[in-house]
Amino acid sequence: MKLLKYIILLAIPLLLATSCKKFLDVKPKGVIIAETLSDFEGLLNATAVVNPFGLNNLIIYPTDDLSDPSFSLQSQSSPKGNAYFWYEYINNTSVRPDLWADVYRQIANLNVVTEGVLNATDGTEQQRRQLYAEAVVAKVYNYQHLISFFAPAYGKTTAGADFGVPYVTSTDVSDAVPERPVLQAQYDRLLADLLTAVPELPESNVNNTRVTRYVAYGLLSRLYMSMMDYENALKYADLALGNGKAAILDYGQYAGAQLPATNSSPEELFVRYCNNTSFRYSDELLSKFDLNNDLRIRLLASRRTDGSYNYGSQQLYNPNRGITYAEIYLNKAECLARAGRINDALDIVNNVIRKKRFATDKYVALTAVNTEAAIRAVLDERRRELAFKGVRWIDMKRLDKEGRMPAVARMDKSGTAVLTSLSPGSAGYTFQIPLMVQSFNAGMPLNKK
C-alpha cells in the first residue's frame, strides 16, 4: 500500500531520456538507473523535463488572461474547466491528479539526478556538481508552480501557519511520504536551494533549456516577487541581467516574418514549455492593448470572425513558459516603482520594452505623476508583455494578497451574463490537495476553505 501511495503522490514514471543514445535501464521498482554523466545529462535534456505541465496547460486556465466561452457551469468535470471556474478541486473525482502528478513526475526525474550524479562513473567533480546544481534549480522551478496552485499566497503574517506542498528528495518509493511543510519553511528551503546551487552553475550552458547561474538569479527574483519582498527581488533581477546577454527583440524587424524559435531566441533566459495551444484573450486583457499598433497583437495573435483574438495561433513556435528577460526587466521596473524611483521604472518600461513592441512612428511612452501611477503603469505593461507566459497566476495571487486584484468574472457565451467570479481574497486562489492524494494520505492537512 505504501508503494502505491507514494507513486500516486509523485507520479513517478519510467522516463525515456530522449537525448540519450540508448534507453536507460530501469530498476524493478520503477526508478531509472543512471550511471554516467551522459545518462544524467540525458535526464536534464529530456522532453518530459522541459515540458513539465502535462497535456492540459493548467497554468494558464485560472488566469484573467483567458476567456473560454466553451466551458459551462453545468456538468463541469474537465480539469481545464475546473481550473477556469476556480473550483475547489482541479480533478473532482479520485482520478490521476492533473498538474500535481505532472509536476511531481518531473521532480521525481530530477531527484534521480540529485541522488546519483555525484557518484557518476565518469566526468570531473566539477561537472558532476554542476549537473547536481542544475537539477536543484529545475526542481525549485517546479515547486514554485506547485505552491502557486496548491498553497495559499505567501504573507509574512500567515506563512508560518499556512501549508506548502510535500518536498520530496528521494527516489525510493518505500520511503514515507513527506509531510506538508509550513509555507515559510518551504520558501526558506527553496531560496536556500537556489543560493547553494549558484556557485556550482556555469555562466552559460549548451542551450536555454538548461540552467545557468543567471537562471537561478532570475528564479530568486521571481520567488521574492511572490513573497512581496521587493528589495531582494530587485537585487536578484539585477544579478540575472548581469550576464550582458539580456535582450528584447525589436518586433518591428519581424513584420510579415515569424519570430525566432523559442529555443534559439535571445529573449529567453530559461525555456520551459506547455503544449502549444491557442488561447482566447479575455476582454479585460485586450482592453490594455492598442489593438491597431501593438506588435504583440500583430505577431502573437489572430483576430477571429466574431471580433475576439486568439493568442498563439499565428506563430508556429511554442511560447516559453519558463523565464524571459522581459519578466526580469519588469520585475526590476516594478521594484523601482514601488521604491519611488518613477523615472528609472518608466525608463525600463518605455525604452527597454515598449520601444521594441511598436513601429517607431506608432510608439507612445507611458508617463506617471506619482508612485502609485508608476506601479499601475508597470503592472499594465507586465500584463501585455507576459500574457499567456505562465507567470500570471503567480502574479494574481500576490497582487490579491496586496489588495490590488479586482474581481475576475467568467462570462457566458453571449458575453453579457456573469457565470461566476473570483472575488478579492477568495479561497478560489488556492486549489485543494487532490482527492486521490488525500485518499492515500489521510493525515495530510488540507487547505482552508
UniProtKB/TrEMBL annotation:
Location within or outside the cell: Cell outer membrane
InterPro entries: SusD-like_N, SusD_RagB_dom, TPR-like_helical_dom_sf
Main location: membrane
Keyword Protein biosynthesis in record: no
Keywords (A to Z) from UniProt: Cell outer membrane, Membrane, Signal
Family per record: Belongs to the SusD family.
Name this polypeptide is given: SusD family protein
